[in-house]
Specification:
globular; five-stranded antiparallel sheet
Length: about 140
């Protein structure tokens, strides 16, 4: 994920507190404890950095494995990030053995809405246009 490397550098430049990378074993264990499998894209993501201590400049907080381990199981996937102190959350749910889709969850009566067909696609969009990852009630689907 080239965009992930660039995003991590931007976060460092902004002074975001990033945690050290995690091992594949720890990532698998955390996602299993949350009720889902960690696909290779998730392993790559958390192998690059271990989440955030606090939010970035766009008010996105990427969860640590400790936070992931302590969430209840959900058929809707695993929360891996939240926006504006949990105004909404982003969930990862495997779409195949190799990739997970990203869903936005408003914690209302509606099911989470798919916004990216891969974690890589989500990272790319967030890196290039963070304010367009979500804006108002408009969801930005894959082209």
């Amino acid at each position: 994920m080239h965009a992930l490397d660039a995003l991590i550098q931007r976060w460092r430049d902004e002074g975001a507190e990033l945690l050290p990378p995690e091992s594949a074993e720890a990532i698998h264990a955390a996602f299993r404890s949350a009720g889902h499998n960690a696909t290779p894209d998730i392993i790559e993501f958390y192998s690059a950095f271990g989440g955030m201590k606090s939010s970035d400049g766009q008010i996105l907080h990427v969860w640590t494995l400790a936070e992931i381990r302590h969430q209840p199981h959900s058929i809707h996937g695993v929360v891996f990030a939240d926006h504006m102190i949990f105004t909404w959350a982003y969930r990862l749910k495997p779409l195949s053995d190799s990739v997970s889709g990203v869903y936005i969850d408003h914690f209302d009566d509606a099911a989470p809405v798919p916004i990216a067909n891969s974690l890589e696609s989500f990272v790319e969009r967030y890196f290039t246009k963070p304010s367009r990852t979500y804006a108002g009630n408009a969801f930005f689907q894959e082209p």
